[in-house]
Amino acid sequence: MISFHQASLKSFLVVTSFRLAFALGFIAPSLLLLTGCPQRDNSALVLLCPSGKVTDTITPALKQFQSENPTLKVRLISCPPKDYYTKALSLFAARQRVDVVWLGQGFGMFASRGTLLPLNKLMEEEAGNGKKATARNAFIDSALSLYTYSDQLYGLPYGLDLEVLAINEDLFHQADIPIPDDLWTYEDFLNIARSIAGQTALSKHRIFALGMSEIPPGFIGLSLVSQDGNHFSFTGAKALNWLQTNIDLRASGALLPTATEGQFDRLEEFLSNRIAIMRIFTWEIRDLKERAKFQWRLLPQPKNTDNSQYAWASSSGFSIVKNSPDPEKAWKLLKCLIAPEMQVRFSETSVPALKSLWEQYADNLDERERAIIHILPTIVPEPRIRTAEKVASEWRYWQDKAMEGQMTPEQALEIASRRIDQILQKP
Amino acid sequence: MKERGTTVLLFLTPNLVGFLLFTIGPIFFSILLSFFAWDLFSSPTFVGLDNFTDLLGLEFSTGSGVIFTSLIVGGVAFISACALKGKPAVRVAWGSCVAAFAVAFTAVAVYGIPTSPKFWQSIGNTLFLLIGLPVGMLGSLFLAVLLNEKIFAGRFFRLTFFLPSIVGGVGIFLLWKWIFNPYYGPLNTALQVTLGITGPAWFEASAWAKPAMLIMNFWSQIGGGNMILYLAALQSINPSLYEAAQVDGANALKRFFHITLPMVSPTSAFILIMGIINGFQGGFDAAYVITGGGPAGSTTTVNYFIFESAFKHFEMGRASAASVILFVIVLGISWINWKFFASRNY
Amino acid sequence: MKSPYQLFASLKKALLFIGLCLIGVTMIFPFLWMLATSVKTIDPELIAIEGGRSGIFPTDGNPLAQLFPKVWHWENYVNVFREIPFARYYLNSLLVGTAVTVGQLLTSSMAAFAFSRLSFPGRDKLFMLYLATLMIPGVVTIIPTFIFFSRIGFFDSLIALMLPPMFSAYGTFMLRQFFLGIPKDLEEAATLDGCGSWRIYWTIILPLSLPALATLGIFTFIANWQSLFYPLVLIHSDERKTLPLGIMSFVDINSANWPHLMAASILSLLPIIIIFLLGQRFFSSGLQVGGVKS
Predict the structure, then answer these.
(1) pTM for the whole thing?
(2) Distance between CA C141 and CA B31 in Å, rounded?
(3) What mean pLDDT is reported for chain A?
(4) Three-state DSSP class for B313?
(5) Is the Cβ–Cβ distance between C163 and C230 less than 8 Å?
(6) Binary contact (C118, B11; C-beta < 8 A)
(7) Nearest CA-CA distance, residue B332 and chain A, Å
(8) Quick check: A263 and B204 CB within 8 A?
(9) CA pair distance A54, A42, nearest whole angstrom
(10) Prior bond to B266 cis, omega within 30?
């Protein structure tokens, strides 16, 4: 036992000042706490949305909304975009007040847990009043279907988020590969990836053919979960073939080496000339336009042998929370947030969801972006399921096992299919 | 001193209330919750031991016949071993029993697929990261021996070595994420320029993520509390022991192995036990900041697994069951520690 | 004239010194790299003007020779404050840290006093309970704590961050050990003079254990300053984030801007380094109070 023998209390001063600090240190923070943190205004509507571009776009609109409706107060909470959905869910779980929430592809996690207010009735009332802007048929059909869960509409979109492919034409020239056109096939796509990966001059500089850690299964019309959300649909020869192709491409160095794409800032890599073909989303196009120092263009997803073509899509929009103490005001806010002028504002990050705005949007696209127009008819909405996070992480686990050679693709598919069915069918 | 009850209560209450509210209460609540399935949105449903069997269970796809046969053979052998009295027979029976269990165990390891492979993987990762402990202890002892010499600016060195252990948190994890960046981090650049080796992808490769963690932990812990403890232990060794050894002609290496090492062994044991416990408790922050548990779950520690199931998948019951298992593991280690040291130190 | 033995001894000393210097440099080097990165830039135009040394991407030369840029971009530090409410995070961390430290010192020292100086039935059993919970991982209690705070309405408030760590079993344990080592003569004299427990606690025990309190205080403050797990689960609004959480949200929107990230990291580490340099004498002693008694 070490003991500090300072038996003779050195100076009265030290002790007194210590005691003062002790007492003050306790009182001061509590006072600061009471004054320093502004009291929350309970009458304000709470709007939850991801920080970054969405918040930046919404903030000026909110100001306008407030000036038009001085009686309505809105408090904006922004969550970081990474893990936005789980963070938002944990807010709901913690029973925090949220009235209107921004939702995109994670919509299913919220709707299936019964946290959202069905909008069907409100929509019908609006339609009865003869208002067009929020009528069902004003929206692009697939955009609304993305907010439907068991026949109920739970949200209204301001935009569609599409996945396109971006190619770095400079790298294609370096590799001496002709630039494909909008009609390219899945075979073309694979061949290009292989031949870029085969060029040692490029691979020496750590240049990747594909800016993805695996080929999106959607390219060949596969999806993890069946449309009704009841079972794992990633089975059969097609799935096996997909897995094998990915293993081969990974081995040849065409794919990004990392299993966790999130760890790797794909857009930064693409912008710094290190990726030839890149999966890009509509919300990233603006960055591409502003910052890319090379020739690029967008391409639609490659066509399959049976001429089918599939594009991943999601929508961005807002939903009203079921526990909202003031759904009427929340509805008002929601309508303002998806109004046509907002959709135009958001069109830098997503394709407008209103049919009436579509033509104007298409006209504004430049030559490099025309591919977006081709993609719209090929959209396949992902099934909305409660356990989306869990299914994805379970699948990722077995897929990695197969891709790292710890298991044959057949085995991995077999186990994954059994496990994921179990997860999906759990009540 | 005999005290009035109120005085005692006044002294004790502030801490005790908080202790009950934020430590004891939650522990019991966690144990209770581990028998329920609850996503916080609907009401909890009682599921009995399902959470535990799901976390720890195994399933057999092929060859399960072998396992059950060997288990039955083992069981029969065990019973007969118990029934037989004669000495050689007992030996044979025990031998066959052990062999049968060995077969069964291997079969389980080969054919058994855990129902939650991720949980087992997280335990495996936690254990793997414990490898760093003995290495770090050796490093700390080495530094302590160096610093124990009377040397110019010794105090300065001690401070320098200590600094990484106290300056930690998100900032330092980010720094290491940057240092280990496979494409333009300083480490791989230096490897490329000086040795011409293309370094591994570190935190982005499942095989290298844990070694990278170990290197990071080694750097941050080697000069920390463990070194200070060793230094104190070294300073309490009676110098006459060394003098006597020197007279006997023992060289420096011999003196180290025959005097220093045994004399610091209580400290080593203490550090080891605390290190194991800390190993089971820690690892969350680094995993969250640097890798997000990946790649392919290779840095998911038990802590991170619990966080993920609770606040990403909202399976509170399952997460609680995992935390109860963790709690039992840590309690078991503490208990061993208690038994082990009861006779020695306390 | 030195004897060969002395010569050998001083040679050994010199070698030892060089060895220690090398190790010291290795320990410090990551910090240097951090500083160097924080004053670089990722702007390709600036890099083109100032040369590759100003960028974070490797150039062809020796990376060690190009550790520091030609032009030091101190504006990165200002930008951190501009891009995120860094000052707010700082203030929150300070508030939580101070409250937890003072609160823990107060409650722990009182409980430790009860456990070491007062006698009451069940004292040792209760202390065993404290001891048994010393090793409990934080995750075991986080789910109930989350539910508790969200149901009583303190979710997403600094109070939720302050309360749980205030009542530490470790602090109680450590201070009790220390109090047991304080000789009882003074107290006995004071008791004869008619002093009650409160006065003994306040005028004798506390002043005598200043070093132990300082040690515990420093450790508590630093642990709290670095704590990520609790805030991660309990806090979501920007204006209530503490530094670690704030930096994490900075990472989310800025993942490739290493100079900015490193600048933010250095800013967050500064207080710890200062505390470390000011209170260094408490570190070694504190470790041993809680550690082995050799």
Answers:
(1) 0.87
(2) 10
(3) 81
(4) coil
(5) no
(6) yes
(7) 27
(8) yes
(9) 24
(10) no
